[in-house]
Amino acid sequence: MNGLVVKGLSKSFDTVQVLKEISFTLLPGEIHALVGANGAGKSTLINVLSGLFTAYEGTIEIDGTPITLHNPAAAHLAGIRTLHQEFDVSLFPSLSAAENLLLQTRIGMGTPWVFPPRGVTPRLKQQLEIIEGGTIPLDERVSNLRLADRQKLAIAIALDERARFLIFDEPTASISPDQADHLLTVLKQLRARGMGILYVSHHLNEVFRIANRISVLRDGRLVDEFSVSEEERQSAWLRDRTIRAMLNKEVMDLYPARRRKPAAAAPLVTIRNLTTPTGVTNVNLEIYPGEVVALTGLVGAGKTELVRALFALDPVTSGEISWEGKTIVRHTPRTMIRRGTGFVPEDRHHQGLHLNHSVLENLSLPFLQGVRGFAGGVSRARERALGETLKQAVGLVAPSLAIEARGLSGGNQQKVVFAKWLQIATKLLILDEPTKGVDVGARSGIYRLIRDMAERGVSVLMATSELDEAIGNADRIMVMHRGRIVYETSEDIGSDALMSYATGGKGGMLRG
């Protein structure tokens, strides 16, 4: 049979079996999506096919011929290319884009470290044309390239003459929606050229747009596989079947039940005519106790800038912020925390966690005063008790609180960030892209945390680019476009209508 065929693949680490008799086929000229919750086995399967994990059971064939992937070079010779989520690690930042192409593809070079004076060869130009990389400044150092151009470069490098199968691991995790749309167009073009593409993503909307087939992993097993026709791409049936297979439960369980804010409640926070040097313009907003407010819109619409200004991380040019009816005079992150405000940033790896520290240290860091012993140092017993309490409160899944935070899944890392603010955010919790890089199963737990806090009377302001997330969680939705709030509603609304407002349509500013 033509294509990449996996039969009865199993992989264990010590006594733990991570993959259990996986069988599937990746055909030339198709996009085959692989989905599953964190811990389902997706990364392990990718690493086996990339030659990184070598001790496996089962067989792997290409066009009916068995192959052994005993190292990455063997996978490369077999025509398998993998573009990992952190694609930058495959590039040399101090070299130019052209030098990266020449060095890594070994085409057109005189000697390994001497490049021909004419630079990029016709073959390499063709690789760039395939992925529409003609706008990449080839003489520019990679470290100076835009993120989207660096990704295009990594793809172009993979498209040498031996490449037949491309594996994409979360390729849109760190790029904007516009850049993601362009990437999906490129993948369709590669499919039309006969390339077999294994597409791994948490973003189901992307999967439904481009996949010919979908395979679902759960607990190390392939539990479902089905083809996708053009007519089914937007169907509720497709989404329901996929999520049901991933989570072993119905889609309706993803979002907790909402409640409307009490009509008589006075606002906790009032923002009037707020303008910032970062692009927010004349914004007016009220946030009520126990209410979940979603700020949504495209990347760059001003959502992140607004929530950062509210938490006093970015300066304010003009306007007024009031807290419980009184104008805030001294506005700093410290005073916001003292008022009972927590802030979960978009970039949890660099702004929300100390990845090289233990989970327990991350959890207890904001509460060091509360875990001190009689001699003034940290009481390990109190620290452990606090850590266990927070672990239970957020449903954190970790083999031990002593492991480094980097060893947790994306969903559990985010729960650690939430847990840090649980005892601080007694009045207001500000969230910036709270489920970025988190799978569907972990999202469900995070959504319940948000709703639980609201039920306790905490106000929640959530900035999210995912329209379905805003619709499913918010009591009230505010749409931003070019730094302004252009639409507000507490009524049911569809994602198509929200997208129209987010792109500047629907006739301007409305409050409904």
Question: How would you portray this structure in words?
Answer:
Helix 4 packs across helix 5, helix 13 crosses helix 14 and helix 14 packs parallel to helix 15. The protein folds into two domains: 4-108 and 120-246, Rossmann fold (3-Layer(aba) Sandwich), CATH 3.40.50; 269-503, P-loop containing nucleotide triphosphate hydrolases (Rossmann fold), CATH 3.40.50.300. It is globular. Helix content is 32%, strand content 23%. The longest helix has 16 residues, at 177-192. It is built from 17 helices and 21 strands. It has 512 residues and is of the alpha/beta class. The model is unreliable at 107-113 (pLDDT under 50). It has a seven-stranded mixed beta sheet, with helices on both faces. It has a six-stranded mixed beta sheet with strand order 6-7-8-3-9-10, sandwiched between helices. InterPro entries: AAA+_ATPase, ABC_carbohydrate_import_ATPase, ABC_transporter-like_ATP-bd, ABC_transporter-like_CS, P-loop_NTPase. Keywords: ATP-binding, Nucleotide-binding, Repeat, Transport.
- CATH-assigned fold name of the largest domain: Rossmann fold
As a percent range, the share of helical residues equals 25-40%
Q: In CATH's first tier, which class of the largest domain applies?
A: Alpha Beta
The coarse silhouette is globular
- What strand line-up does the widest sheet have? 16-17-18-13-19-20-21
Kindly report how far apart the N and C termini lie: 58 Å
Q: pLDDT under 50 segments (min length 5)? A: 107-113
